Amino acid sequence: MSRVCELTGKKAMVGNNVSHAMNKTKRKFDANLIKKRFYIPEEDKWVTLKVSTSALKTINKIGIAAALKEAKSKGFLK
């Protein structure tokens, strides 16, 4: 999977570059992704995930186990 958050499913958006003369050309807004290792104490193992920074804030708030459970229920993880 390239440039897609594994927990939230965020991916690139399409928009326009707009010049001062209002000329518009297509561009891509990539998701702000970070490759990060997380320790899951329930399973006693490390997991490497490519997550967006907003998903990282969610993990810090609710915990990795709850975030993985929520992602599985939404169908982003297998």
Automatic annotation (TrEMBL):
Record keywords: Ribonucleoprotein, Ribosomal protein
GO biological process: translation
GO CC terms, sorted: ribonucleoprotein complex; ribosome
Keyword GTP-binding found: no
InterPro entries in the cross-refs: Bacterial_rp_bL28, Ribosomal_bL28, Ribosomal_bL28/bL31-like_sf, Ribosomal_bL28_bact-type, Ribosomal_bL28_sf
Entries under SUPFAM superfamilies matching the protein: L28p-like
Top-level taxon: Bacteria
Pfam families noted in UniProt: Ribosomal_L28
Keyword Ribonucleoprotein: yes
MF term (GO), any: structural constituent of ribosome
PANTHER family named among the record's database cross-references: 50S RIBOSOMAL PROTEIN L28, LARGE RIBOSOMAL SUBUNIT PROTEIN BL28A
Family designation: Belongs to the bacterial ribosomal protein bL28 family.
Protein name: Large ribosomal subunit protein bL28
Organism: Gelidibacter algens
